[in-house]
Write a structure and sequence with these properties.
Order of helices and strands: HHEHHHEE
Largest sheet: 3 strands, antiparallel
Number of helices: 5
Strand content: 5-15%
Helix content: 55-70%
Length: 134
């Protein structure tokens, strides 16, 4: 009789151990799902709040310009100063100059090479005016 009780207790303890491990596995899976959902929400929030950078803004300014309404480096710099107050004007001036100036070694400026497009440039009163034709 005692042997039957011991066997029943052993079976019961094995079943409760299986149930406990199943519950533990279930909770672990739920915790992983919650962590993945939180990470996805954080990534979406970060992507939604991210503004375009200085170089992307320079490129966008030139792409929006037309032959009738071209944009100069000074106008681009003024826009950048308003949009990025944390950066110094001198640093942004260097960035604009680097992105839009055509060196004697290159036939295109850096922004054109990076975006794989060609900007139109004409000079009026020794000031370069940029625009893009689609």
């Amino acid at each position: 009789m005692q042997n039957t009780q011991t066997t029943a207790q052993s079976v019961q303890s094995v079943q409760s151990a299986k149930t406990a491990s199943a519950i533990l596995a279930q909770r672990k899976a739920q915790a992983q799902q919650i962590a993945a959902a939180k990470a996805a929400a954080a990534a979406a929030k970060k992507a939604a709040s991210k503004k375009p950078g200085i170089i992307a803004t320079i490129r966008a300014q030139v792409m929006q310009a037309t032959k009738q309404n071209p944009v100069t480096q000074t106008q681009i710099l003024a826009h950048l100063v308003k949009q990025f107050p944390a950066h110094t004007k001198q640093a942004m001036r260097k960035t604009v100059s680097t992105q839009l100036n055509i060196s004697s070694k290159q036939l295109t400026c850096r922004a054109e090479r990076e975006a794989n497009v060609i900007y139109n440039v004409f000079y009026k009163n020794n000031v370069a005016h940029y625009y893009f034709t689609k």
